Structures are given as C-alpha cells and as structure tokens.
Amino acid sequence: MTFEFTLLHTDADSRGRLGRIVTPHGEIATPAFAPVGTQATVKALDPRDLRELGAELILANTYHLYLRPGADVVAEMGGLHRFMGWDGPILTDSGGFQVFSLAENRKFTDEGVLFRSHIDGSQHLFTPELVVRVQEQLGADIIMCLDECAEPHDRAYNEQALARTHAWAGRCRSAQTRTDQALFGIVQGGIFPDLRRQSAGFLVGLDFPGYAIGGLSVGETKEQMYAMLDITMPLLPAAKPRYLMGVGAPEDLLEGVARGVDLFDCVLPTRLARNAALFTRQGRLNIRNLRFERDPGPIEAGCGCYTCRHFSRAYVRHLFKAGEMLASRLATLHNLHFLLQLMRDIRAAIAAGRFSAFRDEFLANYPIIPHEVRVTNREKRRRRNKARATSKGRRGKGD
Amino acid sequence: MTFEFTLLHTDADSRGRLGRIVTPHGEIATPAFAPVGTQATVKALDPRDLRELGAELILANTYHLYLRPGADVVAEMGGLHRFMGWDGPILTDSGGFQVFSLAENRKFTDEGVLFRSHIDGSQHLFTPELVVRVQEQLGADIIMCLDECAEPHDRAYNEQALARTHAWAGRCRSAQTRTDQALFGIVQGGIFPDLRRQSAGFLVGLDFPGYAIGGLSVGETKEQMYAMLDITMPLLPAAKPRYLMGVGAPEDLLEGVARGVDLFDCVLPTRLARNAALFTRQGRLNIRNLRFERDPGPIEAGCGCYTCRHFSRAYVRHLFKAGEMLASRLATLHNLHFLLQLMRDIRAAIAAGRFSAFRDEFLANYPIIPHEVRVTNREKRRRRNKARATSKGRRGKGD
Is A67 on the interface with B (CB under 8 A)? Predict the structure, then answer.
C-alpha cells in the first residue's frame, strides 16, 4: 500500500474537508491531529496508550533522532516503527524547524545549514540530500523537505529563505530513493501574502503528494496566521492533503479546519500537560491550584479519558505537588484525548453539515490566550531551551 | 469480608509456606511481593499496569501521605483505594521507618517520635495513637504498629528501642477503632538473637492478626538477616502471616520464603528501574551501557512483560540516554514483572514440592551484589536524601 489521499466531502459553509489518507502503516481520517513523539516517544506515554487514545498519526523529529540515537541505529533496529513499537502511520519533519529553534551557531548557505548540536555542541551539516537520506533511514510514512524557517516579520530574510527553501524542495524531490514514503513540500513566506502565493505556486509545480504550511505559529498573531491560510489554501490542489505544521491550540484547529487544513501536529497538549495545564471546553485549568486540593470531580465532567474516568482533580493535583511521574502521564492522556476527541467531533460535524455551528459554539465557550501572553511564554521557553543547550543537554528535553 | 489468613501448604524441605490472605479488597496468594507506592502511586505506573502485572497487594507510606496531601484529604476523597484508583488490597506502614531514614531532627521519647518534615521542615509528633488514626483515615487493609527502627548493631539502643516498640504495640492495639483493618505487630531487636526472641514472644502475647519483621535490610549482612529469620520465624504462630519489611532482592525473597516469610515489600525493583538497572535471571544489567546501543533483543529473552514483548534493549537504552519518562515506565514494568513472576514461580514450586531445587537453581545463576557494595550504595542514597531534604524537598522523591 502506498500513499493515497481521498477527499470525501467538502463543507458547504467553510473550506472544511473530510478525507482519508492511506499509508503503508494504516489509514488516517482527516482532519487529524498528530501527537508529537520528538525522540521516538510521545513523552510519558507508550504506544498502547496512543492506540487507545485513537491517535492515527504521530510525528517524530528528524533533528533529534539524527543526533540521538542516530538514524543508522534506528535503521539497524528495523526502522522507526519497529524501534518505538508503533505500527501506525508516522510523519517525520525535516529538522529545519529544530535547527531554527534549538541548535546553536546555525549558518544557512545554499548548500544547507551548518549547526551545532544542542546536546553536545558537535557540528553538523544538514543538506536537502542528507535529510532525505536520514528520513529514509528512519522510514516514516510521510517525510518533509528541508526548509528554512525565517522570523515571520522580516521581509528581506523571508525572500532569501524562500528562494533557498524552493531550491531545496527540488533537491529533496530528486534525492528521494524510496517509493513508499510521501514527501511533502513546505510552503513558507512569513506573513507576506505575495511570498506565500509565490511559494504555493512554486511547490505545486513540483507536484508533491502533499503540502505543508510552515513558518506559522512562530510569533505572528493569530489573525496573521489565519490570513496566511486564507491566502495559501485556495492555491493548493484540492486532491492533495494540507498539513499545518506546529499548530495545536484548540481554536487554531477549528480555524485551520475551516480554512481547509487536513493535518496538524503540535507539542502543545503534551508540553502543557507536563506543566499541569489541562484542557477543558471552558479553557485551560492549572491543576496545581489550591482550589483543587479537595476536589473529588474529574478534570472535566463528562470526559471519557482514562484519567477522568478513574481519578479526581485532588489526586492529579497531589501527583503534581509530589513530583510524581504519573502526574505527567495522567495529564498527557487527558490533554491528548481532548484534542483527538475535538478532531473526532470536528469530523462528525463536517459529515453532518453542522461544522460552522460546532465551531461557533466551541469558540463561544473557550477563552483564548492573549497574543502577548503567548509571545512571553514562547520567549521564556526559548531562553530555557538555550540554557539547557548551554548546559550541554544533560536532560533529553527539547520540545 | 474481614481479614483472614489460610495456610494451604507447608514445604517438606524448608519452612516455605503457601497461603491465602483474604482482605476487604480481595485476596492475596502468598508468599507475595508488594510493590511500593510511596506517595499513593507506584512510581511511573498506573493502577491498570499493576493489575496487569498481577500485583495483589501494594504498599503506601503513612509518613509521606500524612505530610502530603494529608490523611484528611485522602479520607475526604473516599480513602486511599479510591484516591489512587486501586481497588485491590493495600498495606500502609506506620511511618516509623521513614522517620528513621528520612526525617530531620528526630527525637524518640516514650510518648512518640518528634521530627521535622523532609519536605518543608515543619515539626510533627507521631504517637502510636496518631499513626493508627492516620492509617484508619487512609483505610488500608493491613496497617502497622508504630515501631522504633534502631541501628542493627547497637545493643544498648536496640534494648531501649525494643522496650518502646513493645509499649507502642500495645497502645496501637488499644487505639484501633476500625474492625475492617488488620493491625500487624513488628518484631524488632537488631541482630541480637535474644532481643528478637523476646520481641517475638512479647508480640505474640498481644495476639495480632499478623506479624512483621522490621529492622532488617538496614545495614547488616545477608547472613545476619537470614540468621534473624531463622531465630524469629519458628516463634511466630503458623496460622498468622509473616511479613518481612523492606526486603526485595531476588535472593532475599527466596531465602525469606525458605524461612517461612509470607509477605515482602521493597522499593528496590522500582528504584533500580529508574536508575536503568534491570533484573534478569543472570543478574542485573545496566541498560545505559554502550554495548546495548544496537542490541535488538529484549531486556531478557523469554520474559513476558510488556517491555520485553514490544521493545529492544537498544530502544530502552535510547530512552534512558534521552532522559525520557517512558524509560522509567518500561524499566519499572520489567523489574516488577520479574519479581512478581519470581513469586509466582516460587508458589508453583512449593505447590509442586520442588521449591528447594528451584531455589538452588535460581541462586546458582544469579550473582549477588557484595555486602560492601550494598553498604556503599545505601550510604550514597542516604546522603542524597539528606541533600534533598535540605533543599526543602522541591522534588517529591523519598524512596
């Protein structure tokens, strides 16, 4: 079975689509959200958990796996599916974004990007050819072109990065030797409509089996992100899947679907979970809060996840206060269930012709984190990552 | 259903026994090993994992739960079983050992023990009456008397501590108000045969529904520990279960069973797991070792645990090197399976009349950690715990 996308239904009131992706490791009902397993594990969970959550696609990071344990080790162990015990579809990114956000002393040239590992400071060169080879060694079902993610507001930098991203897209296409992996092109262009149009046009010309939208959710406002989707989506062929990279806030999933996105991935639900921030339809709650000390109820009433079916807020709070690993596990199960259930609800709503009503209703109840708070949080995270990198990555964090 | 012990069979070649304990929350086939859930969670696992591992009894620590989240919180949430989502039998210790090993500025008097919390330095007084009340609030099926654990080689201290332990045992018996919990007395006496005899005799006179042997595996040699069991066991009534506290090394389970022990508990398998030390029938291996980098085999060939059925040594090593939580989870599943399977094998061997042969065969293959190494490791751990306590317990460790 090779890669195949079938568009099943298009929403009458929006650009929302229902589809099905077939891969060598199984099917994915779209629109879909992919949990992120940075280092060949979705943090705190095992593959059985992911199955039970109903995850149909997971993502792993080429940058991380290339550095540790090494793509050759994964290949020798039978490839990523076997290595991590997950027999469903996997997508690997190209590493471009991690070089942008994690690596030190990065230097982009037409040849590729030279950088130092955040783990041990060792120097590496990612070329389009190398990242395709590495992704072929890893063996994911969907793989990505090497791209250069630029600061979204910098016009000159975006022009330059885009030219490189396009040249690299062609080289990635040529470098591909395996026929059982779907290589996606990545549309870039920051917050500049003409660059986004140019990028979509160029990549469509290369006829990829799928298209990603990169360089969003990296500091621009939500309005800017939605505007870029409004511009880009209509230029992509309806018969190919569209993947919005690194986006996972509930409101963005709804807005993305409304604009024609078929795939999403993000560390948000798993990272928030480890920080005790839990999704509910009324917004996030921080379970460390004292008001939950004696709260016998579940994290969210009516939630069907393992955590909510078995444990009280008081218990989950206790686990966080006590520094127990089970805290992260139970919180991660809940947050991923929340997003995967949201995607199931979205798909059902599209199928029933009531997606717009569903979206309005959800958004009416769900408070959105203000732009300034998101920017501040991202900045804090970046500083933390840098500090970790400086201490030579004693710990294996990185999403 | 109240507490009941049935002795089903006694081994012909040893003091080994097969039995069954009935508790309000289910049955326990003995001899049994109880995983430790210090802070109302067996670290890195959830209750479903424990069920699937075949655990029939787990232990939780009164000292830890009294300090955090507080016994009143647990009681208000419906008791420990409901709070932690484990509906099987639970045993709580009295907190005496944690005061001995973790707390600061402890001061024993006839009234009780005054100590400072390792978490926040707050001062507390454990009396026999209080620890019974706290354990009644927690609601375990088996609860323990407050005892004073003394340095095993200090004769004068052991004499004094024993007198107190005996007085407290009587006060605990009198303080009990719930009739659905089995209160065990704890035999102390260090490495002194006459004190052990005196202690067993005194406690048997109080007619407890079960007897624990405390103050072992705290620095004495294995030969000294086995000698104390040889002396104590024949003095305890055959119709009551015997519980060897804090013992969990494979060789000690076999030697304990051979001397008539019915119950064991220990943090060893879970703590070793988090430190990448994994049990095999040929001894422990450290999975971080470079020689496992490309090892496609399971941790132990033939092992039926979830980890060995799904993952390679190479993958588990990668998870440890990358600092992933799943490392601890997979390692804990393996180590607990190893000990619980060992107990199943021991029970089957006793039932089949071939326990001595089984023990000899196991011990012939299993290298035992030398006494000096164990003493050094314990000293390191104690210093680490003290350092943690000094930093006011930001992390919730404590076993």
Answer: no
